[in-house]
């Protein structure tokens, strides 16, 4: 390596150290705010869904207009994830999917609204490691889906279908406009909620951005519009937690994977995510589980991708936890 190249590498490392130092000394906001965008980009053709996203909804995400004289009933909908394929299997683990139902008194039409991954949960949680691309490749978009009909059996058999209240037509139309705006600016799915520990007073480092968070935002918007929502049962939702000490900011794709001086970090991130790659054989999956255990539990290390940036989590017991906890209506 020439003296000039060595000097450039040294200067780059010093620069990154200064940036990290300034960032750490600045007032870091916890949880890290979810990043909003000006518009939703087109999905990359490499990303493929096992099940098509929103197959019966409007291709442009349009929501029907309601007359103000209409009375719109609002329903809480919840069912086990992939209930259509596995029945109540994931429900026994409290891994639930949430949605909202609407019913027009004037037309008798029913509608379902939900927010979920364009390319299934696994693709939103872990990236693809592609030989032709050095940086991990993410298919992590999520979006709202609005379609006609409520599948009563799907929601009520192993989950919840409960009327919460009523809206005027104008309240519904205002909500519909908010959904359109929210959907254009909140574009990616985030599986994990990251906390310092399981106690009630724990610090939340990162919030998830998933189906239940969309439901909570919608309920708050309906309250803001003047709706009154009431539930006769406890309103519980699935949360998937990671537990760690204070996270360390690492950088984005260009700063990590575009700089030779950070090759070791780039390789470590690629190796970490390779453990969670899709389409593994049974033997490969068994080996990957052991590798994941070693990395997360033994080495106490996890790389989180949030706001299109990487963070390092110094993991701590109980490391990961799935809960089904109450979140009251607003």
From TrEMBL:
Organism, as annotated: Eleginops maclovinus
* Coiled coil regions in record: none
Q: Name one GO biological process term.
A: lysosome organization
**A single Gene Ontology molecular function, please?**
hydrolase activity, acting on glycosyl bonds
* Alphabetically ordered keywords of this record: Glycoprotein, Signal
Looking up Pfam families in the UniProt record yields: CLN5 (PF15014)
Identify the taxonomic lineage of the organism of origin.
Eukaryota, Metazoa, Chordata, Craniata, Vertebrata
Q: So which domain of life are we looking at?
A: Eukaryota
Annotated GO CC locations: lysosomal membrane
**What is the official name of this protein in its record?**
Bis(monoacylglycero)phosphate synthase CLN5
The entry assigns this protein to a family as follows:
Belongs to the CLN5 family.
The residues the entry assigns to the signal sequence are: 1-20
Reaction(s) catalysed by this chain's protein = 2 1-(9Z-octadecenoyl)-sn-glycero-3-phospho-(1'-sn-glycerol) = 1-(9Z-octadecenoyl)-sn-glycero-3-phospho-(3'-(9Z-octadecenoyl)-1'-sn-glycerol) + sn-glycero-3-phospho-(1'-sn-glycerol); 2 1-acyl-sn-glycero-3-phospho-(1'-sn-glycerol) = 1-acyl-sn-glycero-3-phospho-(3'-acyl-sn-1'-glycerol) + sn-glycero-3-phospho-(1'-sn-glycerol); S-hexadecanoyl-L-cysteinyl-[protein] + H2O = L-cysteinyl-[protein] + hexadecanoate + H(+); 2 1-hexadecanoyl-sn-glycero-3-phospho-(1'-sn-glycerol) = 1-hexadecanoyl-sn-glycero-3-phospho-(3'-hexadecanoyl-1'-sn-glycerol) + sn-glycero-3-phospho-(1'-sn-glycerol)
- What does the function comment of this entry state? Catalyzes the synthesis of bis(monoacylglycero)phosphate (BMP) via transacylation of 2 molecules of lysophosphatidylglycerol (LPG). BMP also known as lysobisphosphatidic acid plays a key role in the formation of intraluminal vesicles and in maintaining intracellular cholesterol homeostasis. Can use only LPG as the exclusive lysophospholipid acyl donor for base exchange and displays BMP synthase activity towards various LPGs (LPG 14:0, LPG 16:0, LPG 18:0, LPG 18:1) with a higher preference for longer chain lengths. Exhibits palmitoyl protein thioesterase (S-depalmitoylation) activity in vitro and most likely plays a role in protein S-depalmitoylation.
């Amino acid at each position: 390596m020439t003296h000039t190249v060595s000097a450039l590498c040294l200067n780059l490392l010093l620069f990154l150290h200064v940036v990290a130092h300034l960032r750490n000394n600045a007032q870091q906001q916890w949880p890290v705010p979810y990043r909003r965008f000006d518009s939703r980009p087109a999905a990359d053709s490499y990303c493929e869904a096992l099940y098509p996203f929103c197959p019966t909804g409007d291709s442009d995400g349009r929501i029907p207009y309601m007359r103000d004289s209409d009375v719109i009933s609002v329903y809480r909908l919840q069912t086990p994830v992939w209930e259509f394929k596995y029945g109540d299997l994931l429900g026994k683990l409290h891994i639930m999917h949430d949605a909202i139902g609407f019913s027009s008194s004037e037309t008798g039409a029913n509608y379902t609204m939900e927010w979920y991954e364009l390319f299934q949960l696994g693709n939103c949680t872990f990236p693809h490691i592609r030989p032709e691309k050095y940086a991990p490749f993410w298919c992590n978009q999520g979006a709202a889906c609005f379609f006609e009909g409520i599948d009563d059996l799907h929601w009520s058999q192993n989950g919840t279908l409960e009327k919460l209240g009523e809206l005027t037509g104008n309240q519904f139309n205002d909500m519909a406009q908010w959904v359109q705006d929210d959907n254009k600016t909140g574009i990616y799915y985030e599986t994990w909620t990251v906390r310092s520990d399981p106690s009630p007073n724990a610090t939340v480092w990162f919030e998830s951005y998933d189906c239940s968070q969309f439901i909570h935002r919608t309920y708050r918007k309906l309250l803001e519009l003047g709706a009154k929502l009431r539930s006769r049962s406890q309103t519980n939702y699935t949360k998937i937690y990671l537990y760690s000490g204070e996270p360390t900011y690492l950088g984005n794709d260009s700063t990590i994977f575009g700089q030779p001086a950070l090759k070791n970090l780039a390789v470590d991130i690629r190796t970490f995510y390779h453990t969670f790659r899709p389409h593994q054989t049974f033997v490969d999956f068994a080996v990957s589980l052991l590798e994941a255990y070693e990395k997360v539990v033994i080495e106490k290390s996890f790389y989180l991708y949030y706001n299109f940036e990487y963070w390092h989590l110094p993991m701590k017991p109980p490391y990961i936890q799935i809960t089904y906890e109450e979140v009251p209506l607003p």
